[in-house]
Design a protein that fits this description.
Shape of chain A: globular
Largest interface: A-B, 45 and 45 residues
Distance between the termini of chain A: 20 Å
Structural class of chain A: alpha/beta
Number of domains of chain A: 1
Oligomer: homodimer
CATH architecture of chain A: Alpha-Beta Barrel
Chain lengths: ~300, ~300
């Protein structure tokens, strides 16, 4: 049960910042990324190639990515909403893209005003674009399956749909799939069940999990995923994400709490928790209204915990 | 993975109130118990027979217990610190006692100024007292194993000690043992491991688990226990417990969040979540400084969740 490595993917710079209206200075974003890499993080979603007129927070996507690409050892992923975003990202030098797809038809319409089939067709276009590139420039492409465990608009999301779309995306060329509990509906046994069903069809192409802590089950769901062999877990510093100013909304699982939990369970993340908590204080100062959460920052580390990295 | 019943034991009236200085009126305690039973709770630790001069909050133990004993369907347990407490509890009509034992030698000295062996000798005295009673008056006796997963004073607690003391207590006459993560050090795989080790030696005599949410792992640890077949879980309304006015301290796992989680996983608790949330609001009003926590109260129930009871 111990010893394996886990890739923890910081998504706070996208999931977190997209809900923050005040523009965070580009230099601060770069400093955040550098400090987190210095703390041992090796995987970050650093920016989003969504149109700047929709989300001005990401108007500096090219600059932020360019900085991330200078950091040795960092796997820098960027979010792309569509073909245009993919083209911009590749032009900016991106090596790893993440495409967001909603398994819930209602969420798909609400979020991107498209049906799931139209979203899938867009993805096929992105794959064609990738094939048109010289092999050395073709990026790695993950697909994040939003609302894989339920949807606050339509309610239940069919497990069969999750499996079927996973097969379709992999056949179309997706390098991996990550399952996302976008609205915090998942329960641990459900995570076990859905991961197993998807694994049965696409095997190791199911790589990651993205969990929200809306109802306090985020870490319990992460353990369920770990126990099924998942080794890539999204999280954000201080649980940034959701809309911190909307009552009831809660963000991603808290990155520093996740690092604590998995390290205490004997896994290795490469992350130095003390450096991470120091960075967290700095980011808290950076963002107005203190939208961060977390347990370790309040309770401290147990006497039995060894900071290893 | 579904369908079994789970006994959720409300410990807020002891674990929660013991850290609240202002005396909660006896009538309010009684109303809390009645309302929680009306919401479907069937198991509560209703009071503590600790000396009133040590904890004046429990100076009304006899009255509170007498009220609880009038409520049909309620399994009312009381905490006893020693033989004198057991004698008072039995004289007051208690049918179910919980004796607290610290597996950590350092915690034992700090908490009750006694070695573990002295604590065990006290328990043997309680068992002699029980045998001296007419059979019909002999209470059921559980032993709560504090610091079973680590101790904030001595650090590591030996798993061997947990197993050995479990055997000794069962041989001495304990009806069941519950493992407690008093300081929030447990991790899910550790819960799996310790539960298995203790079960190997005392089988079904290991009944319950008592978890604190200090570092946010309470529900993840509860799932680990459930997956090992544990079906009795302590919790407190709003997570009452610890010392709410001490920064960094956090109480028990949140009862209403636990009910939500296990019901969403397909277990049945008999508890009506809406009634419980209404009661929670009333208890919040009763206690100064709002020492309560929780996720469901903030985020609400998912669209997919059916209130069943």
């Amino acid at each position: 049960m111990t010893g394996s490595d886990i890739a923890i993917i910081e998504v706070g710079l996208v999931d977190g910042l997209q809900s923050i209206e005040d523009f965070v200075p580009t230099a601060a974003k770069m400093q955040w990324i550098s400090a987190e890499v210095a703390a041992g993080l090796r995987h970050m979603e650093v920016t989003s190639f969504v149109p700047a007129k929709l989300l001005p927070q990401f108007s500096d996507a090219e600059e932020v990515l360019a900085h991330a690409l200078t950091l040795p050892g960092l796997g820098a992923r960027v979010l792309i909403p569509n073909l245009k975003g993919a083209q911009r990202a590749v032009a900016a030098g991106a090596r790893s893209l993440s495409y967001a797809f909603s398994v819930s038809e209602a969420h798909s319409h609400s979020n991107v005003r498209k049906s799931r089939d139209a979203q899938f067709a867009d993805f096929v276009g992105i794959m064609e674009f990738r094939r048109s590139l010289e092999p050395a420039r073709r990026p790695y492409v993950s697909v994040g399956f939003a609302t894989s465990f339920g949807c606050s608009i339509q309610g239940t999301v069919s497990e069969r749909d999750v499996v079927d779309f996973a097969c379709r995306f992999v056949e179309a060329g997706a390098d991996d799939i990550a399952l996302a509990d976008t609205v915090g509906y998942a329960t641990p046994h459900q995570v076990t069940r859905v991961v197993r069903s998807v694994r049965t069809e696409i095997g190791e192409r199911l790589k990651g999990i993205h969990l929200h802590d809306t109802r306090g089950l985020g870490l319990a769901n992460a353990v369920a995923a770990l126990d099924e062999g998942i080794r890539e877990i999204d999280a954000s510093l201080g649980g940034l994400g959701g809309c911190p100013f909307a009552p009831g909304a809660t963000g991603n699982i808290v990155l520093e709490d996740l690092v604590y939990m998995v390290e205490a369970m004997g896994f290795r993340t490469g992350v130095n928790l003390e450096s991470l908590l120091e960075l967290r204080r700095w980011v808290t100062g950076l963002l107005a209204g203190d939208p961060m959460r977390g347990n370790i920052v309040r309770a401290g580390l147990p006497k039995t915990f060894k900071v290893t990295s």
